[in-house]
Amino acid sequence: MSLLDRVRVVLIETTQPGNIGSSARAMKTMGLDRLHLVAPRLFPHDEATALAAGATDVLDRAVLHGALDPAIADCQLLVGASARRRGVALPELSPREAAAALLDAARGGVEVGLLFGTERTGLSNEELQRCHACVRIPANPAYSSLNLSQAVQVLSYELRIAALDSGEVVDPDPEAGPRERPATSAEMEGFFRHLDEALHAIDFHKGKDGTTITRRLRRLFLRAQMSEREVAILHGVLADTERMARLAGRG
Amino acid sequence: MSLLDRVRVVLIETTQPGNIGSSARAMKTMGLDRLHLVAPRLFPHDEATALAAGATDVLDRAVLHGALDPAIADCQLLVGASARRRGVALPELSPREAAAALLDAARGGVEVGLLFGTERTGLSNEELQRCHACVRIPANPAYSSLNLSQAVQVLSYELRIAALDSGEVVDPDPEAGPRERPATSAEMEGFFRHLDEALHAIDFHKGKDGTTITRRLRRLFLRAQMSEREVAILHGVLADTERMARLAGRG
């Protein structure tokens, strides 16, 4: 099993079926074959098959999802491809850094995902909020419009180079000790729901709109790449906080 | 003038006009715009224009040649893209090495060329013999068939990264905005003290020794490299938590 087998490419609401096919081809040339499609406009489709050329097996095994969350629920590191610099304060990685981070995580035995948004607008802010980091191909500022499959090609290429450079060996680092299992995306979402409830119980927002704060806290905790155990500890803190709010006659 | 302006991409006997268009687009996204076409089967062509998207200016300025030699006559370093290992005794460079070599030469003031053969068979041995080196994208041995424009994308990408790394191309960053000030160590310690007090107020440790948990939470929050603003938000959460504990008759 290659390290690249733990990397899934998630294409979200792809409009042109041809782009799905070219992306599958781009992936396969670089040794990636785990494609997840979230609500593609047209799939399966002749154009996708035609442009996949010899990579129709990647299309055949593609997993279809109606929404993003099920596509990433079991992923423990998510990197979103972003065509431009964003207002969201998410760590921005270069393609090379992103490849290293994804493979590092995969080396720890976890599933990782590389997310691509729809052709015209890329990932939405809501989708980026699921991500631990974003990756930006440093394109020509005067014309940064890479075709979807070209972006998939460049990032798959960097993943392959990183895998080759590392010898693709799953390297059990004797000094690292047993690493804690990173929290999955579903576990993080459960934590964020609990956090929202607790903030409500202690009346943190004081009647004001809490969206911005909530989003900031999401980013902070995603950035920390928490382990399952850390999430459990924080659930405990939130539970005790809610208990106090109840005793105080609130919540 | 950017160093990348001295790099020409030479497409030889391209069969599909769409590939010329996608290659132009791939080049422009990476800041390359000097395209030379040697005996293309169909050019100009609607399909080339369509797939060039916003890069039709690259097509408009493309230089057409009837044969290879005039396309490269004034070039002083030529690197040929090769899909597979060849019998020709030419130095084989990785994409990263090729980008470095091309830019090094360009830095010396010379024109350099990156050559791509026809879609089906790539560069002929005769064409490769014009080259100083060849470059091979280390593709999946089981499926190494990159589309022409995907190969152009990967190699243009490496050229851009090499140019950016050497400081010869500088990406302006108009959208980055002022970054938030990272929290100082003293601010983090202040936060950890407050966290300890709040955990005590909500009786999180239930009489047990909380040292391990406290240490874990420190690591978690330090790892997140919080900003001053994020620390302020969490102080607010802790203050409201303590308020609830007081209302509950504790703390």
From TrEMBL, chains A, B:
- The source's superkingdom equals Bacteria
- Catalytic activities: cytidine(32) in tRNA + S-adenosyl-L-methionine = 2'-O-methylcytidine(32) in tRNA + S-adenosyl-L-homocysteine + H(+); uridine(32) in tRNA + S-adenosyl-L-methionine = 2'-O-methyluridine(32) in tRNA + S-adenosyl-L-homocysteine + H(+)
Main location as per UniProt: cytoplasm
The protein's UniProt keywords, in alphabetical order, are: Cytoplasm, Methyltransferase, S-adenosyl-L-methionine, Transferase, tRNA processing
Q: Where in the cell is it found?
A: Cytoplasm
Single annotated GO MF: tRNA (cytidine(32)/uridine(32)-2'-O)-methyltransferase activity
Q: Which residues form a coiled coil?
A: none
Q: CDD domains from the entry?
A: SpoU-like_TrmJ
One Pfam family matching this protein = SpoU_methylase
Record SUPFAM superfamilies: alpha/beta knot (SSF75217)
Enzyme Commission number(s):
2.1.1.200
Q: Which GO terms describe its cellular component?
A: cytosol
Question: What is any one GO biological process for this UniProt entry?
Answer: tRNA nucleoside ribose methylation
Q: Which InterPro entries match?
A: Alpha/beta_knot_MTases (IPR029028), RNA_MeTrfase_TrmJ/LasT (IPR004384), SpoU_MeTrfase (IPR001537), tRNA_m1G_MTases_N (IPR029026)
Tell me where in this chain the tRNA/rRNA methyltransferase SpoU type domain is found. Answer: 7-157
* Function according to Swiss-Prot or TrEMBL: Catalyzes the formation of 2'O-methylated cytidine (Cm32) or 2'O-methylated uridine (Um32) at position 32 in tRNA.
Its family remark reads: Belongs to the class IV-like SAM-binding methyltransferase superfamily. RNA methyltransferase TrmH family.
Describe its partners and assembly state. Homodimer.
Which protein, by its recorded name, is this?
tRNA (cytidine/uridine-2'-O-)-methyltransferase TrmJ
* Species the sequence originates in: Pseudofulvimonas gallinarii
